[in-house]
Write a structure and sequence with these properties.
The chain is mostly helical. Helices cover 61% and strands 0% of the residues. It contains 11 helices and no strands. Helix 7 packs across helix 8, helix 7 runs parallel beside helix 9 and helix 9 packs across helix 10. The relative contact order is 0.06.
Amino acid sequence: MPLYIADYLAGTARLTTVEHGAYLLLLMHYWIKGEPPANDDIARRVTRMTNRQWAKSSSVLKSLFCDGWRHDVLDLELAKVIEKSTVASANARKAHGDRKPTPAGSQETNTHHTQNHIDSDVGKGRDAPDLKLDEGSPEVERLVEAFLSAAGFPDRSRAPPGWYNLVDRAALWVKSAYPANMIIQETRLIAAKSPSPKPLSYYEKVFATAFAHLQQPLPTVPTPRAESTYVRRRPSQRQTVREVLDARIATAEQHDHSRRCSEVRETAPRLLPRRGD
C-alpha cells in the first residue's frame, strides 16, 4: 500500500495519536479487502476502539472518507495495481506465445527434464495434481481451484477482491516447485486458524517456510562405539537359615573338641619326667 507521507500529514493534522492509529488500520483493512467496511460496527472493530473512544472519534474519522466508508485515493491506487498486474500478465502470455521454437531434439530433452522435475518435486502425494510451468495452463487453474477450496471459497466468485492476481501467483508457486499437497495442507491450517481471509503475501510466506523445512536434510546422529566394561562379581553374602545354623553347629563342635583335647592332656599320665626332675 503506497503511503505519501507529505499528503498524509497534511490531511491528518487534526488527528490525535489514537485517531492516527485508527485511520491507518482502516486504510490497511481497505487495501487488503479491496473494499471499505460494510458498516460502522465493522469499522469500529477494525480500529480496535472501545465504544467510548468510537463515540468520540468516529465523526472525525468519517470526515476522511466518502459515503459508505469509500476512499477515492485508495480506489485509484487499487485500480492502478489491478491494471499493472493485468498488463504484466498479458505481456507474459504474449512473450510466451512469441517464443521461438527450439530444435526438435532439444525441445524433447528440455520437456523431458522439466516434466521429471515437476513429477519429483511438485506432484508429490497421491492426491496432488500433475502441474506444469505454463502460466494460465489448465494445471495451474486446477491448483487455483484447489487453493480456493482449501481456503474456504469453493466458488471463485466469492474469493476476496485482494486475490485478483491469484492465477499469476499460482504460476509462480509452480515455478518455485512448491508441492501441491503442501500448499493445500498449509492453506487449510491457515483457514482453520483465521476467521478472515489473509492476503496472498501471507500465504506465500507460509509456503516458503514450509518448503524450506521440506528441503532440509534429515538430521543424522552418529552412533557411538560400543563400550565393554568388566564388573567383578562379588559372592553373595546372603545365607539361608540352614546355612547359619550349620555354621554355628560346626563352630560349637570345634570348640567342644578343643576343650576335650585339653582335658585329656591334663589327666593323661606322663611317660617322661618333667624337665628339671
